[in-house]
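User: Fold this; tokens only.

Assistant: Input:
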Amino acid sequence: MICLVFYGVLTGLLVGSARGFLPNSFSAIDINDYTHTDITEIGILKAVAKFFEENPVQACRDCSAGALTGITDITARRLYDQYYGGVVSEKRFQEAIDDIVKQNNKVDQDHYAEAAWHFNGEQIQQSNNKMQTLRDTLLSILNNTNPNYDAARELVGQYLHLLQMFYSNTNWVEIATSSGSSGIIYKPLGIAGQSIMAAAPPSIDTCRSCGSSLSTDCATNLIVAANLLTSGYKSGQDIAKPAKDPASFSEGKCSHGGPRDASSTLQAALGGINKDSNDAGYSPHHHLHDRAAELAIEHTRVFFEDETYGLRTLVGDDKFQDLLQIRSGNSLVFVIDTTGSMGKDIAAVQNKTAEIVSETAGTPNAPYNYILVTFNDPGNQTTVQKTTNPADIQRWLGEIKVHGGDDCPEFSLTGIQAASTVAMPNSNVFVFTDATPKDPQKINYITSLITEKKLRVQFLITGSCTGRR
């Protein structure tokens, strides 16, 4: 009984904050409803499945076209089992999905009453502008040398919230269905430089009254021309529905509709057009809920995978993998001091690093990638090179030359910071230097970074250039 009461309270809270597709299974009205959580997760899984098909690994049971994207009732676990043969955990990937879902649903909490965050109140262009701004900011973050992936996932969640609301709250699905193009997503949406259809002007009525009070179904209540977008007005939001007495008028602007929208019973046109649920009492256009959700899932996938505008195309495979945390394995990292004082040791360093690479390459425990960081003073010169090919790292190590000042100390912590930033979690970091750090102020930040990523840092040469080893 306690559980039932708690469930009821939780459901009420979550439903009360929803303005389009419902947030998650706790808030679903019908057991078969698609929620923002479902749509986001399935869309991401399909995008990653496509990436895996195009980048097969030896363990993959079947990576042919459609084998992974076509997994029935796809989950991160099922995808990873088929791709990695059941030997790699999906935990970090699922955490990335959960972060994005959380930020998607957080929009309902943070922007509860703002119509433009939900494509409500005919704020079509305003909502599209928000999407463009979010996308441009996201691309700016991801195109940095060292992106803040937490911030990026927050923006992805917000962007996908708006994208999915477009299909639930506007009349695009109705337009596409009536024209025989029900499977077509609206690709110009949210992309800077792409124009979208005009919204119905204030002077045009967009719906006729319908609903249980009139004993009429709302399936055909839209009267707006097929070349104009519209969306429902929602009581309690900052864009109020134009007042029109339903006793005198049977036509007016559309409402969002449902039991939590007073405008749908007080102002013409009565009824609404939301496709949030399969439940007829909650969504006047419930008959199009599945179609709206399917388009939202497809557009979520396309957001990542489009060959021209997709995130993966624009930022590259490496950052796409890091954003969604889908890399397996770890990094083998070398941080090497190349200043003049290392002259007597560099040959030994090259031999030792070559030995470490040879011991791991081609084995079941081989790292996903190899990273070489060199640091040099004067000038605080730090270089970072990454590869998945062990031959590359062997060549780079063999080409190292010492140069510059023979002073002490050196910028060793700057080198370790650069390595820790690009290394995958649970990686081994080998540091070769004969100098104490010239940049000790960084120690707390670097310690935090190492702890967060669970890196194992080993110093193979320690001490100072004045009291060697």
